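Before drawing any conclusions, I looked closely at one protein's amino acid sequence and its C-alpha cells, quoted below without any editing.
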Amino acid sequence: MSNQLNLCKFMKINLTNHRPFLGKWILEIIMRTFLFAFCFTLLSLAPKNSLSQNAEIVIDEDKMVFIEEIFKMISDQTDYNFIYPDDFFVGLGKVDLKKGKIKVSELLEMSIPKEEFSYGFSNKKNISVRKRSKQNSSVQNLKIKGVVISENGMPLPGASVVEKGTLNGVMTDFDGNYEITLSNRDENTTLSFSFVGYVGQEILVGDNNVIDITLKESMNELDEVVVTGYQTISKERSTGAYGMVSSKQIENKVQTDILSRIEGLVPGFSLYRGTPAVRGTATFNASTLPLYVVDGAIFEGDIESINPNEIASVTVLKDATAASIYGVRSTNGVIVITTKGGIVGKPVINYSSTLQITPLPDQSYSNLMSSSELIDYQMYIFDEALSGSRQNSRLEMNDVNKLLYAREDGEITEDYFNSEIDRLRGLDGYSQVEDELLQTMITQQHNLSLRGGTEKYQYALSVNYQNTGSYEKDRSVDKIGMTLKNTLQLADWLKVDASVIGSYNSYDNNVGISGLSLLGGSMLPYQLLKDEDGNAVRWENYKSFEEVDRLISVGLLDESYYPLEQLDTRTQTYKNPYVNLNIGAKIDVTESLNLEVRAQTEMSRSSLSDYSSIENIAVSRLINNAAQIDENGIITYNIPEGGQITETFGESYSSTLKAQLNYAKVFNDKHDINLLFGAERRKVVTGQKGYKRYGYDPDNFSYTNIDEVGLSSGIFGAEIPPYGYFTYTSVEPETIEEENRYVSFYGNGAYMFNNKLGVNASIRMDQSNLFGTDPKYQYVPLWSLGASYRLNTESLSWLDRLKVRATYGINGNVAKDVGPFIFTQVASVNNYITNEKQAYVLSPPNESLRWEKTNTTNLGIDYSLFSNRISGSIDVYKKSTKDVLGNVNTDPTLGWDSVLKNYASIDNKGIEFQVNSLNIANKNFTWSTSLLFSYNKNEITNLDHTGQDVYNQVIGLQQLVGQPMNSLYSIRYAGLNDEGAPTAYKKDGTIVNSLESLEVEDLVNSGTYTPPYSASFSSSITYKQFDFSFLIVYYGGHVQRDVAAGFYPTYTNPYTFNTNIDKIHGNYWKEPGDEANIYTSPAHLSGTGDSVTPLWEYADLHVQKADYAKLRNISLAYNLPQSFLETLNISKLKLVFDVQNPLSWNNNRNNLDPETWTDQYSRGTAIMPTYTFGVNLNF
C-alpha cells in the first residue's frame, strides 16, 4: 500500500519543447488528470475497510481452534487487527477448520455467532467485535438491506422490494439501495424484487442480512428504462418519444463505432452514408447533427473516441418533451450515452478481441473499360477530333495517341502499329496495382476491463487498442483508449463519482501515391507499374518525356515519373490526444430530495504534418514550372529548391458546470411526483492554425520564404508549359479562434397518478454569446408539455398493455459560425498592391440574431399483446421550424450582396413504428424479431430564393419553397437528333438543341437526394449454446443521377486522355439510327461547348431511384458450456463470427451502390463484406 502511495506521490510531469497555442497547460492538465485517475483506481485495489476484498487465509492443517486463535491467524496473514474485551468469548466452543485456503469474510462468518456478536471497522485496519443486546439482536435480525442493479451494473432507482404475502414493502433509492424491516422471519420468508422493464425475482431470506440482486431485462419494449442525461425513469412513466438500445444489443455488434452499432435499432434514427440524423433535417446553416450527451454532460469531442464496448446503454431523445430540456441544441435530437460503471462484488476481468478482414474491392463493380475497349474508343475520338491536329509537344500524350499520330505521319508501318496496339490490348495494369500497392484490409481491436467494488465503492477500468487497416499498404491508424470510472459512497448522504475517458489516435504513413485512386480509373488500363524484368516503368505525367529530358539538360530538376518510386516521397504524420474528465457528487438532503453537482472538462489537440520531399512529382514540377532561365543559362528558382511541408494544429477545450435539485416522492401509493431544477454553465473554445513552408529541410528544420505577391501576380518567361506564364497562390491552413459560451436554467416536472395517468412539463432558458443583443429576442424560453394514459386492459386477455402519449413543445438550434458581431477572416496571402495582411467579412453584425425554433407535436402509442409476445410503438409527429437562418439579398453597396437572417421555415412530418415479437421461447430455443419503419416528409415553407439560370439550377442540389430540401432538378430529355446531338423539351413540348433555349420553368423536379424512408428488420435465435442474429437495413424514396450522365467526350481532353471511363460510355452514337435507343450516348461534337453537353449530363433520363437494402450484418456466436469453463477458472467464453454487408439490393438500372456512389462521375469503391472473428471472456 505504501509503495502505491509513493508511486503516485512522486511521479512528476515535465513538459519541454511544446508548442504554445491554447497553452501547454492543456496537455499538462490532461496528463495530471490521467495520473490522478490512474492512482485513484490503483489505490482502490488495495485492502479497503470491507471484508469483501476477498483476502485469503492459509490453514496449514485440519484443526480445532478457539475464536481468539482465528483472529490471531488473520492478523498474522493480513494487516487487520481485532479489538474486543478480554474473556469476551468465554464459553464458546472451538471452530473446526480444514486445511486449505479460505476468504477472510467466509472465515469470520463461520466463526463468529451472528446471533450474539457483530463486527465492523473502527478504522481502515481495526475490526471491532461487539455483543448484541437482546433487543438490538431481534431488530437487527429483521432488517435486510442491499442494492438492486441491472446486468450491466447500473443501479435501478424505484425498484420494488416487497415481503411476500404481506403489504410490507419499500422502493430503492436513487442508487438502487434499499433497507426493509421484516414483519416476521422464518425459513419461508421471501423477498420479491421487481422493476419495470426487468424480470422479477423472488429470494428466500434465509440467514442473509444483505441481499444484492441483479435483474435481467425483459423482452417487453414498454418496460425499458429511459436515461435522459438529467434523470433516469421507467419508460412506462414517460410521456416522450424515446428510442433505447441496451448493453446486450450493443455488445452483440462488432462495428468499431457506436453509431454503426445502433443503426437499425431505433425508429427515426438514420445513418445514411455515415451521417447520423434524427427525424430529418431542419436547418440550412446550423448543425444538422444530433447532440451527444455522455454520462450526464454534453459531449463536444469525437464520438468515435468512446469505446463502444464500454457503453451500458444508448437513449435517443426524439420529441420536444424528451429533448427540449437541452435547449437551443436539441432540434436535431439528443443521443444520450451511459458508460459502464463498477459493480458490487468480486473483481471481474473481461477481455474481448476482434479481427476484421475485408477483401480488396471488387474491380468489376467499377465497370471500367478494359484496355481493348478503351483503345477502340480512343481510336474513334482520334478519327472524330484529333486527326490532322497536333498536341503541344511539351505536354503528355498517352501511348495510343502516340501510335495513331506516328502512323498518320508515316513514322511507323501499319504492321508495327497493329502489333503495338495488340500488345496494349493485352495489358492489365490494374492487376499490378493490386499486387504492388494494395492489400486486404485488416483491423484489430483488443479490450481489457476490470470491474468490482463494495457497497461503498465501485470501480471500472478499461483499456483498448485498435489498429484500423487500409487497402493501401502500410497505412494503418492506431488508436489507444482508456476509461476510468469510480463511485464512492463517502457517507449515507454523500456519493461522489469521477470518470476519465481518454484516447490517442495516430498514424505515420507514406502517401506518395494512391493505389485505390489508380484502381478507380485515374490511370489507363494498359499502363504498367513494372516491366517484364520487374523494373519500375516511367510514365508521362503532365509533361512529355522529351520536355522532362530537356529540363534536365538545362539544369532543372528531374521530373521523371515512376509511380512505384513515389510512395515514400510524401509522408503524413497525425497525432490526436483527447481526454474527458467528469466529476459529480450527489447530496441527499432528505429521503426525497437530493442535490447533484457535476463538472466536466474536455480537451483535445491535433497535429497533422504533411511533408513532400523534392523527389515528389508535385514538388519538383512546381519548382520547375516557376523557374526562369536567362540568356546566359542562369536559373532563378522562384519556388525554392527542397521539400515542402504543411503543418496544421488544432485545439479544443470545453467546460461544463451543472447543479441540479431532484425531488421524487410517492404519496399514498398513487401520486408519483418527480421534479428537477437546475442551472448549467458551458464554454467551448476551438482553435486552429498552421503554415506551409518551402525549401524545407527535415534534418535541420530550415526553410525559405517565397515572394507570395510576385507569384500571385504572375511570372512571364517561366518554364511552365505550354506558354511560360506562371501564377501561384500559396494556400496556408486557416487560422481559426472561436469561443462559444452558454448559461442555462431549466426545470422539469412529472406527475403520475396510480401508474396510469401521467403529465410532464419542462422549461429551459438559454443565453449565449451567439445570440443577438436585441432585448426582445433574449430570455425567450424553450418548453414542452406531455401527457400519457395507460388504458385498463384487464377485460381483454390478449392485450397486456396499451399506453397513449401526446407531447408538444419547442426545441432550438444554433449556428456556431455566425454571431451578433462582425465575423472576419484573414486572407492567406497579402494584398498584392500594399503587400499588407488583408481580411474580408464573413458575416456582418446582426443584433437580431436568435436561435432557430422548432415546434414539435408528437402522438404515440405503446402496446404489448399476447403475454408480451408482441410489443412495440407507433409515433406520428410534426416539426415546424421557424426563424431558420437563410440568405437574404441586400444592397451590395454595403459591402456584401446577401446576409444571413432568421426568417426561413422548414416542416418535417413523419410516422414511425416498431414491432417486436417473441416468436418462440423455451428452455433451449428462443426466437425473436423486430421490424422498424420511419417516414419523414420534408418541405421548405419559406425561403428567399432569387432567380438563377438553368445551368446553376441543375448542377447542384436546390432549396426551394414548396419542395423538400436537397431537391434535384433536371432537363427534360428529348433524345438525340440524327447527328447524334442531345436535345431537350421545353415546358410546352417544343424541342430545342441548346441550353440557352431553356428557361428555369422548363426544368423538372426529379426528387430529393435525402431518403425519406428508412426501415430495418432484425432477428435473433438462441439454441442452447448458439446465438444467431442478422440485421437488414433499408433506405429509400430518394433519387440520384446515373453514371451515364457523368461523361461527355467534349469534356475529356482527347490529346491527354489519361483516365479510364465507365463501360457504359461505349454505347455512343456512331451513325444515323443509333438514336433510336434512348440510352445511346451522344457523338463527339467538336466545338459545341457547354451549350450542348448539359442537355445530356443533366437529363431527367439519368435520374433514377436510389432505394437500396443491405444485409448489414449476420452473426453466429457460441458460448462454451459452464462445465468446461469451470476447469479453466473462466466464467464466460464466447466465440463470434460476423459478416458485415454480405448482400445488397440496389433499385437502379446500373446497380449503383448509393452508399459509395460519388454522383455522376464514378461508381466509387465497392463496399466489400467484412469478416469478423471475435472472442469474449470473463475471469
